[in-house]
Amino acid sequence: MRSIALILALGVFASIAPASAQQERHLVFTHKFFKISRCDAQQNVATTYSGYVPGYYPYARPWFWGDPYGYGFYQPPITTSNPTMYVDFTNTSDKVMKDVVWGLVANGRLVAEAKDVGTFSPGAEIKHKYGISENVFPLQTGLPQCIALAITFQDGTHLVNPNLPAIRRQMYLQPPPNAGLSTPPPR
Questions:
Q1: What Rg value do the Cα atoms of the chain yield, rounded?
Q2: Whether pLDDT at 105 is above 60
Q3: Beta strands at 109-120 and 166-167: parallel, antiparallel or unpaired
Q4: Is the pLDDT of residue 172 over 50?
Q5: CA 38 to chain centre
Q6: What's the pLDDT tens digit per position in 20-67?
Q7: C or N: which end of the chain has fewer Cβ atoms within 10 Å?
Q8: Which of 33, 49, 32 shows the shortest CA–CA distance to 41?
């Protein structure tokens, strides 16, 4: 009877271990360049954290950009009605970064992206918040993780995380009809 229980326990561990190992591969790239002090996504817009400022968002037009998967990504603005992702990060590399594409991973799958543009100097702590899709929720996990999907340094070097997580198609939104775009970007 003990051997059956042991075999069952090992089978459960084996089915869990690959997902955990896969998540660790996603994080290797991030930990090479960043220290993440907080990663949090909130559906409830009443929940806010002090000290966080909005990340870059060009309010003159909808924020579309080509993501590391080759799709056109629409990032919602920060509003009182959109869910928000908070990332507190420090650039631990020795080079200045000019943009970062963040990913929110839940249950081993990418559920949201946010692009930030600015001057992220080595050793500087950045506390930014980003608008994300309402399709992110429910997360169905207690341990969401923020990972770097891509980085562009000030010297022009562009790096993409070699272990991109599987995507969740629901995260690709169309802009609202009044956003001023006649056609969505290519996918």
A1: 18
A2: yes
A3: parallel
A4: yes
A5: 12
A6: 665 677 789 999 999 999 999 998 766 778 899 999 988 766 778 889
A7: N
A8: 49
Alpha carbon 120 to its chain's center = 17
Give the predicted TM-score (pTM) of the model. 0.80
* The CA-based dihedral angle spanning residues 75, 79, 82, 85, taken in that order and rounded to the nearest 10 degrees: 70
Question: What 3-state class would DSSP assign to 182?
Answer: coil
Written as six digits, the tokens of 40 are 């949090």
Output the pLDDT for position 141: 66
The first and second tokens of residue 85, run together, are 């992702």
- Other C-beta atoms closer than 10 Å to the C-beta of 100 total 26
* 153's tokens: 């340094």
Tell me, what DSSP letter sits at residue 135?
A: G
Give the residue extent of every domain in the chain: 2-176
